[in-house]
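Predict structure. Chain length: 352.
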Amino acid sequence: MKGCHSTLNTITMHIINPITHTDWDRQILAAPNYSFFHSSGWAQVLMDTYGYRPVYFGSANGSFACIPVMEVNSPFTGRRGVSLPFTDYCEPLVKDEEQFRVLLNQIKTEGKERGWKYFELRGRPEGITDFTPSLQYFGHILDLTPGGEKLFGRLRSSTRRNIKKASKSGIQISIGNSLEALQEYYLLHCLTRKRLGVPPQPKQFFMKIHIHVVSKNKGIVVLAEYQGRTISGAVYFHLGKKAIYKFGASERSYQHFRANDLIMWEAIRSYSENGFETLCFGRTDMDNEGLRRFKNGWSPKEYLIPYLRFNPSGAMQPRKHNSSNHFAGRLMKYLPISVLRLIGSTLYKHLG
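Prediction complete.
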């Protein structure tokens, strides 16, 4: 660990690299609000794919505390600290408000020295409410401990019907962690992103996910097949007793079979049977009523995920949800997938 410049309130801050830190994942599992996104595997994916530099701020004395940060340095979008890029949420791992404020002050000081345009937190400790969010998303988390039968009974009636319809239609579900399964998913991912008018993430991103996450038994790929054709898929990550639904894709012409519902149910049942305690459905834009309705059909707890962005002076910096460029979106729907992949490979590293 590399020491920072000062000691604040008797708590010594250090900059940590989770990739080289021995036993990092075991250490974060001791924090009640840990998530997969705090893991060394996710840090390795972000670093290997996009070249981001891990600058994790932690305490070296007393109880463990950490705010993970990646430094994004782009000639087009500038230099900034993000906790963490391409991550739904990443709450600070702190035991109390004092630890949080000490870490936050150190990050602001370090960010000013590094020339960051801003620093962004994706989540904040429970009970701290004096920071007005720059942006908010819905989050949904499902308690898996009741077991499959009770969980199924709690589903919205329309969700249960969709699961039964997919099952009766002859949809076959596979759950695995092979490279072939992830590559099969990526084909669907590219089709779905094209339909939405958005470039897909680089294939390298998913290959790094396989190397550092899925092949290490920290993720699964769930695929739905109909008459020998893969028509839908999803990617889940997990750490400790917590799982998260991260990516989903499907062929539009087969959506009437409701394979997405069956995929989600089989993932829920598998995680529950294997002793996991929670499944998070990721973040949802505040105005995406369709996705919010789909997630609420599984009877999860709904909550808000606040994003806090601080400018170089330490003041809160307001944000707006990315307004879609309708012309660009319409254009991308007509571009070949090969061109969209090239755009994604060029673009995403500047957007983290």
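Summary: The first strand starts at residue 2 and ends at 8.
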